[in-house]
Specification:
single chain, alpha+beta, 5 helices, 52% helix, globular
């Protein structure tokens, strides 16, 4: 099991200390996969301040996150402490306007 109690505590802190957090391959300035880059571009287009965490730097983090979110792939987007989704969900929510609403709500809370 990759998700140790210590890692869970750390992840809880990371996702609750920022309104929008993107666990991704690479960084928001240098995304290292197309899906991560897509989500970064969407968040930037919304002018949403967000924290990015490079999962390629830490294999334990990468494996633990899959359990933490019950989501097998990256990127993983968290809004207001809650798992929002991966690339496909984020793109759909962006097109429908739901993502903008969620981000604005998080920024106001």
């Amino acid at each position: 099991m990759a998700l140790t109690p210590a890692l869970k505590t750390t992840l809880d802190k990371v996702v609750t200390s920022h309104k929008v957090v993107l666990f991704m391959k690479g960084t928001k300035d240098f995304p290292q996969c197309g899906f991560s880059q897509t989500v970064v571009q969407i968040l930037k287009s919304l002018n949403a301040p967000f924290e990015s965490v490079n999962i390629l730097e830490n294999e334990l983090l990468r494996q633990g996150l899959k359990e933490y979110s019950s989501w097998p792939t990256f990127p993983q987007l968290y809004i207001d402490g809650e798992f929002f989704g991966g690339c496909d969900i984020t793109v759909e929510a962006y097109k429908s306007g739901e993502l903008q609403e969620q981000v604005e709500k998080a920024m106001c809370s």
